[in-house]
């Protein structure tokens, strides 16, 4: 009998529960997603990102007074140090945006004089600080890559509008702001995905919030997690027109390759976030003269579902989120950093919750190597 007979492996930690949580509920069989008990459909239609971020971090929707105070905290953090933004401008042109963002968020801890102090209140303050600073940093990265000067935070009360101004250099219209706000809501939280798990593993050692978020950013950088919407959009652009969709889908699948934006570890039916973003992307594309891109995506979706639905592989949030970001004028390489801006709220919420009943995360591996090997002096070893 081997050790694996008595200690079965759960590769990828599938169906392994490591904690209790009141933050997020996913019903993958029935396409349901809830933040703190509120359905994603209701939040995406009626709420704002600031309200949702407050909800995730504090457990309840804010009062008007709470919301004003929270927005002021975010705005106060939206102007990182001049030295940090200069570093971003100097290093962003030829570097991966996620590398710049990861390093920049870590650098925020340098200006936090009390970054080593513990306690839930201090960690909450740091989470809000990181959340407020991230849009300014992401916009600065984007502008540096386009050889444009950094636009300072305009001090708008909406994080979505604030980001679009800093990214574009001009104020967006109401529809663009609402589309950006909705995209941020839909990306804010998703239970113990890979990056959130990285954050709580780091936090469980009693490291600081900056380290936890930095670990999560490094995890989100991977194309199997945060980068999927980039790959999905590139496939849409590669296909080019609706007429090419069926052949390209079939050829890709026949080669044994994946079509990014389809399938999900949790959802066995449609991803509810996908349905919301599909409708938003259609209207955005109509407004921006990108109807062909949307029609191509829809044709790819139809062809892929026809081939893959028997395997319960259906579209996920990534398939249309890239189209929404593209229609908002955000370059493909910035999709994952924009995703990060939103998901910081979920990461920080999980870190705070886990630390309220902390236990160091220390799993085991099943050893399959040799034992009692004889040490051979180096002079006696073969070439």
Describe the model.
The longest helix is centred in the middle third of the chain and has 26 residues, at 120-145. The chain has helices at residues 3-6, 40-46, 49-58, 64-77, 82-91, 97-107, 120-145, 159-168, 174-186, 194-203, 209-220, 228-239, 245-254, 272-288, 291-308, 317-327, 335-355; strands at 24-27, 32-35, 38-39. The chain has 2 domains: 19-221 and 340-355, Citrate Synthase, domain 1; 228-327, Cytochrome P450-Terp, domain 2 (Cytochrome p450-Terp, domain 2). Helix 10 packs across helix 17 (335-355). With 383 residues, it is mainly α. A hairpin with a 2-residue loop joins strand 2 (32-35) and strand 3. It is globular, with a radius of gyration of 22 Å. It has a 3-stranded antiparallel beta sheet.
- Roughly how much helix do the residues carry, as a percent range? 55-70%
Mean pLDDT, nearest integer? 93
Terminus-to-terminus distance: 36 Å
**Unreliable stretches, pLDDT < 50, 5 or more residues?**
none
Tell me the strand order in the biggest sheet.
1-2-3
Going by helix content, strand content and strand pairing, the class is mainly alpha
User: CATH class of the largest domain, please?
Assistant: Mainly Alpha
The rounded Rg comes to 22 Å
CATH homologous superfamily designation of the largest domain: Citrate Synthase, domain 1
Tell me the number of structural domains.
2
Sheet with the most strands, sense and barrel status: 3 strands, antiparallel
Secondary-structure element order, N to C: HEEEHHHHHHHHHHHHHHHH
What shape does the CA trace take?
globular
CATH topology descriptor of the largest domain: Citrate Synthase, domain 1
Please count the beta strands (DSSP E, at least 2 residues each).
Answer: 3
Number of helices: 17
Tell me the β content.
Answer: under 5%
């Amino acid at each position: 009998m081997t050790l694996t007979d008595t200690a079965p492996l759960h590769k990828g930690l599938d169906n392994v529960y490591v904690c209790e949580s009141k933050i997020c509920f996913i019903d993958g069989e029935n396409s349901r997603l809830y933040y703190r008990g509120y359905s994603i459909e209701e939040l995406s239609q009626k709420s704002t990102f600031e309200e949702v971020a407050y909800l995730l971090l504090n457990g309840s929707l804010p009062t008007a007074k709470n919301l004003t105070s929270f927005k002021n905290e975010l705005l106060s953090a939206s102007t990182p140090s001049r030295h940090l933004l200069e570093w971003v401008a100097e290093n962003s042109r030829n570097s991966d945006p996620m590398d710049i963002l990861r390093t920049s968020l870590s650098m925020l801890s340098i200006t936090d004089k009390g970054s080593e102090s513990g306690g839930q209140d201090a960690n909450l303050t740091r989470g809000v600080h990181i959340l407020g600073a991230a849009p300014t940093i992401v916009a600065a990265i984007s502008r540096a890559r386009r050889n444009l000067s950094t636009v300072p935070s305009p001090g708008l009360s909406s994080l979505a509008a604030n980001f679009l101004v800093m990214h574009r250099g001009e104020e967006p219209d109401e529809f663009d702001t609402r589309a950006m706000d909705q995209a941020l809501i839909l990306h804010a939280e998703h239970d113990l995905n890979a990056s959130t798990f990285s954050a709580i593993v780091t936090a469980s050692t009693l490291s600081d919030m900056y380290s936890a978020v930095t670990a999560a950013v490094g995890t989100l950088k991977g194309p199997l997690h945060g980068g999927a919407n980039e790959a999905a959009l590139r496939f849409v652009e590669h296909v080019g027109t609706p007429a090419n969709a069926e052949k390209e889908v079939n050829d890709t699948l026949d080669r044994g390759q994946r079509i990014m934006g389809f399938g999900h570890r949790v959802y066995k039916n449609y991803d509810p976030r996908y349905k919301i973003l599909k409708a938003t992307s259609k209207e955005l594309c109509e407004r921006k003269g990108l109807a062909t891109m949307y029609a191509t995506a829809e044709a790819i979706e139809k062809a892929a579902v026809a081939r893959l639905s028997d395997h319960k592989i259906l579209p996920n949030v990534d398939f249309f989120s890239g189209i929404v970001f593209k229609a908002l004028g955000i370059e493909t390489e910035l999709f994952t950093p924009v995703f990060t801006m939103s998901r910081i709220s979920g990461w920080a919420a999980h870190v705070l919750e886990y630390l309220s009943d902390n236990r160091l995360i220390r799993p085991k591996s099943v050893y399959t190597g040799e034992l009692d090997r004889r040490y051979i002096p180096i002079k006696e070893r073969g070439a």
